[in-house]
Amino acid sequence: MSGLALALMAAACTTTETAEMAASPDNAVDAAARRAWAERCTDFDEWDKPGPPFRIYGDTYYVGTCGIAAILVVGRAEGDVVIDTGTENGAEIVLANIRTLGFDPRNVRRVFMSHEHFDHVGGMARFLAATGATVTASAPAAAVLRTGHVSTDDPQAGSGHPPFSPVEDDALEVLDPEWRAITAAGHEFKPIASPGHTLGATSWTWQECEGGECKRIVYVDSMNPISDDTYRFSDHPALLAAFRKGIADIAALDCDIVLAPHPSAAKMRDRLLGEAPLVDRGGCRAYAAAVAERLDRRLARERGDD
Questions:
Q1: Is the dihedral of CA 189, 192, 197, 200 positive or negative?
Q2: What is the pLDDT of residues 38-56, one digit of tens each?
Q3: What residues form DSSP beta bridges with 189?
Q4: 3-class DSSP state for residue 78?
Q5: 14 burial class (0-12, 13-18, 19+ CB within 10 angstroms)?
Q6: Domain 3-303 is classified in which CATH homologous superfamily?
Q7: Is 272's pLDDT higher than 50?
């Protein structure tokens, strides 16, 4: 039976049966679902292309599309957490993927986010309306969520980012200014300021356990130094300094499994196919080093060194 057929079989099970299968570590359904995603999706795929959900480790699942990540952390009695919702159409795929796994989207109580661009949060309002959850975001990101328009200070402000449905104030919580950890879904989530790609970008880390073995998962923001045609990172020394600090903070993390808002940025497909390890203690250092190299190249171009 193909991986896709097994994934569809899992989707056809009752909620209780599917949840029981999802709770058992490293079973055939897990392996089939991971391969089904890798067979369905390509590197840097379309943002709204559906892909089957799969378990990453323990109670942490991938529920996003082929091109945009969304992460579900199941807390059962404590309620669940989702990180990122994708576009407005993508949010419907995320909701469907949660149901396919046998979980109820209405059990999602908290939503966290990476950065305030429409491809990752354009579906936030729709997702919150469907679940009744609240979203927690950094102050700059919260300001964008309230309006549905990219900030005028965003490096990509002139790139024509489309507006998206704004989030109501009563569904929005601003991160603690001290960036303290948040306990939700039976886990402790630590936010990490990661500005650069946007002003309000945030990475997240939490511990996940499976079969008595615990791993540290890190969902690293895109941290890609790209912009519209007029923006120069070298003209914004405060943001540049915060960018450098965020890179260093990611490199220094205790990190076993690295994930990213664009799954291909973390080589997700290769890792699901076994061409690279899913668990990699050097994953965050490698991710940070690649970001630092791209930033250095960008600054060199701005200086005219190329």
A1: positive
A2: 999 999 999 999 999 999 9
A3: 182
A4: helix
A5: exposed
A6: Ribonuclease Z/Hydroxyacylglutathione hydrolase-like (3.60.15.10)
A7: yes
Q: What Rg, from alpha-carbon coordinates, does the chain have?
A: 19
Map out the domains of the chain as residue ranges.
3-303
Q: Is 5 exposed, middle or buried (0-12, 13-18, 19+ CB in 10 A)?
A: exposed
What DSSP string describes 155-183?
TTGGG-PPP-PPPPGGGEEEPPTT---EE
* Local structure of 131: helix, strand or coil: helix
Rounded Cα distance between 180 and 167, Å, is: 23
Q: Are 187 and 208 in contact (CB under 8 A)?
A: yes
As beta bridge partners, residue 202 has 193
Angle between helices 124-131 and 88-100 (to 10 degrees): 40
- Answer whether 37's CB lies under 8 Å from 54's CB: yes
218, 249 Cβ separation under 8 angstroms: no
DSSP state at residue 200: S
Give the distance, in angstroms, between the CA of residue 149 and the centroid of all CA atoms in the same chain.
20
What pTM value is reported for the model?
Answer: 0.91
